[in-house]
Structures are given as structure tokens and as C-alpha cells.
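Re: export button greyed out
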Amino acid sequence: MTSVSIREVAPRDGLQNEEPIPTDAKVALIDALSETGVRRIEAVSFVHPKAIPQMADADEVWSRARKHPEIRYSALIPNTRGAQRALAAGFREIEVVVSASDTHNRRNLNRSTGESLDDIASLVPLIHEAGATVEVIVATSFGCPFEGDIDPDRVAGIVSRVRADGADRIAFGDTTGMATPRRVRDLLSAVRPDLLHFHNTRGTGLANILTALELGVTEFDASVGGIGGCPYAPGASGNVATEEVVHMLHDMGIDTGIDLDRLIEVAGEAEKLLGRTLPSGVLRAGPRTRLV
Amino acid sequence: MTSVSIREVAPRDGLQNEEPIPTDAKVALIDALSETGVRRIEAVSFVHPKAIPQMADADEVWSRARKHPEIRYSALIPNTRGAQRALAAGFREIEVVVSASDTHNRRNLNRSTGESLDDIASLVPLIHEAGATVEVIVATSFGCPFEGDIDPDRVAGIVSRVRADGADRIAFGDTTGMATPRRVRDLLSAVRPDLLHFHNTRGTGLANILTALELGVTEFDASVGGIGGCPYAPGASGNVATEEVVHMLHDMGIDTGIDLDRLIEVAGEAEKLLGRTLPSGVLRAGPRTRLV
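Workaround output, generated via the alternate export path:
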């Protein structure tokens, strides 16, 4: 393996799990990330502002962000209304979520996994007709906080269903940080996604990525600075920090297109913006090549 | 691989890198760890109190700690005087350090690596005559903050020398957290230690251990709660947290003899004792098997 594709998710998944910040700051974060060499950015989600106030200004953020022609920007949507907003805003990569755990899907989306799959089946043609692609993110793929490990065959069944319904890409989400190297092997031996989204909740973030690399996965989500951990649980971390992922990959001789030094600068700016210590060792210590 | 041997280093390596705590608290930490099922504990170091005030009460700590016959306790020593104190205190496992980097050895020990190797050669018979064993910890094995990566052949040469001089065991120390999966493979393809000591400074702690497991290493140091990070650099972490290591290993079906729930309780007690948030995700979030 000589290269890996990183999707930077701090502007959407990261900020959605932090205290709200001003619109200007969101635009500045997207613009700064666009200058790091990263080739994919999850920019915003089009959700109801009462459900997720952090994304209430998604239209304005996206209209003001500088779009680089070589970067693929994506938006998350929960339903038809969200899809219409994302398409009207010009997005050509749309993400939608379904949970592998029925209990989690009901708690999160107030319907069964099967009902959500039906919703996705009706969303896909709408999005395709507008010339955009659909990525289905299968949440709780690596474990559910209510049900524990989900049978890999059940995850595989969901993947088969959404592929049959026209999904262009599949991502597996490590929703509450239950992924481990063992679980990654168990799941990926049954079914392969296009992209993996790991958390570092229990310290295994990079070990999970290492395991997935060995199994041939080449696309990963990551969040600069590890943005997205719950600020009310000090030390708890959500998304893997992009600079920690890139640092390990570059050390292995795997290209990401990203300028690590620039990325670390953006992480530092994000830390000041959020006003809390971000859970990123590489932000704190710098890369191993930075000698005294 | 069905089992891994963990050496718990919080009482020595951990506390040596924290603000000093009372003697009672040190004794309580050792006693609590002895009840977790861990089979090896690095208990104290016998160093000059002016150099390392955190270990000034090593004799008292050790005399008051409850010794479990099934646990191997070890002590670190810097010189003949330290060795005499450790042996007089009853230790039968002695550790001594030399740095693979000449620059680091001079800064740390005020002599060349070669001079330190001569010192070790004269210490080994002294320790053996008292019926104890000697472990040589090769510091900066995974990288030196002054010199960068040390040639694996140089590390191999140091290992050959100390083995010829009678060292019973070899450990490789990741002194400033420069180990990565790539460096672990590079170094271990040249020379094998008995035990590995990783830090989690740049997020790769568990990824390094995973890599070493794949290469057949079965002995690792770890520090409960990740104790040992510099308290002046928030978020920076030193030693890998024992509960994070044990959590990943048990999930892989690898036995450690350790009761993870009890270990997490000890980490929580240690956090209160030190009065700072410890860098351990498993302490914060609990094991992945703890469902809602």
C-alpha cells in the first residue's frame, strides 16, 4: 500500500459534538483544512436546527467556505428535506446513516433499522437524479452500547441491501468507540466497506487503523485535533485525530497528500477556538522527526 | 499467542514522573496493584534523593508494602550504591538503564554509552552474587530526541555486549514516545528484546503493542491510568495505560491474569490521589463490554 485517502470530518462530525462556535470560525476551519493537502472534507450536515443547533448555519457556512476544485466535499443528511437542502447547496457527495443495531437505530432515529433502510431506498434515486452520489454509513458496526457486538452477518445483510438499492459507497462507523483490532478482523472477514470511521475512546484508534490497513482498507475518516470528544468528559476522546493518523501513515511510507506540519498548525488553531485541550498527542508533542 | 506478561510500572516509572506524593499513598498504590492479578510490579528505584525526590522514601515504601509470593517485584538502580540498597532491601530482580543514543546517555547519565556498558559489566557479577537477576533497559531504542532513529545494528551491538556480560533480560525503552509500528518492525527485525516498554506520546501505544505481538513479543510494561505523563503538558501522555493494554489483549482472547474491573478501580483511585485527569480512555469510558 502506497497511499491512503483521509476524509477530514472535524467541520461536521467534530463540531457537531462540541459546544457551538460562531459561523466565522466554522468557515475558517474549513478554509484552513482546505489548505492542508487533504482531499476530502465532510463540511456540514443538513439537519433540523432544534435537533442539532451546532449545524443550524450549515447553508451559510457552506456558501461562505472557499471550495477547492481538487477537494471532494460531502454533507450528511437525515432525510428527504436534508437531501434537498444539500443538493440545492451544490453538494455532490451525500452521506446518510443507518444503525446496524436495531435498538440504537430506534433510540437515535426513532424507527427500526428496516424502516431506515426503506427510507434510504427512496432517498437514493432522488440524490442520483440530481447527479450526486450516496454513501451509507452503518453506525454501531463495531459494537452497540445497548446490544454489544452486532453479528457481522447482520452488518453484511445491511450492506447487501443498500448496495442493491443503489448506494455508491459504504462506511462503517465506530459510533461509541467499541472497535478493537479483534472486532475489526471479525467484521471485515465477513463484509468489506469502502471507508472506516474509528473513534479513539478506548485507546485503540490507531491499532484499529493498522489492522484495517493490513486487511487492505485504504479510506479512513479522521478529525483534526480529535475534535468531537464530549467536552463534559475530560480526557474522553471521540474521533481519531487526523494528525495522529497522518503521522503514523507517513512514518510507514504511506502517502496521504497532507502537509503534516500545516495540519498540526490547524489543530492548534482549533484548540484555541474551542478553548479546551484537544486529545491529540501529535499536536502536543509534534512529530517524532522534530528533534531537539 | 494465549497469554501476555504485563509488568506494572506505575509505582516507580509512573510516580517518578509525577509530582511527589506521600509515602502512605505509594504503599497503598503498590498494595492495590498487588490485588489486581498482575504478576510483575516495578516497585521503586534506589536513586539519589536529590536527583529524584519522588523516590527518596524507596526503602520505607518497600518495607511497608505487602509482598505477594506469586508476584515478581523489581527495582531500578543507577549504580553500585543503588544495587547494594536494592539487594539489602531484598529485591531479586534488578533493572539498570543504558541509552542506545550516545548523546542521550551523556545528557542523562553524564557518560558515554560505552562507559555505561562498562559500569553494567561490573554491576552484573555483584548482583548475581547476591542471587538476583539483572535486566538491562536499552533507552531510546525506538528513537532519540537528539539523534533521531538509532541504527538497529547499534542497538543489536549493545544487546550482544550486555548479554555477553551476563545480563539476564533485555528491555527496549521508548523513552520519549518515538516508537511507531514501522520502527518496531525495523528494530525487531534486527534484534529481539525480552520485554518492550512503550509510551503513548503520539497515540501509537497500542498500535506498537499490536505490531510487537504479531512479531511474537509477549512481555510489556504498562502503567495504571497512564501515570507518568508530565503534568505540565496537559494531554501529553507517557506510559501506555495498563487498563488500555489489558482491555485490548483480553478482547483478543489473550490472558494477562489481571482483573480488568479491579484494575480500572485502582486507576480511578490513582487519579484522585494525583489530582489530575489521567490519559486513559478505558478509565473514562469503561471496557467495551460494559453496556448501557
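The CA atoms of residues 46 and 108 of chain B lie 16 Å apart. The button fix ships in the next patch.
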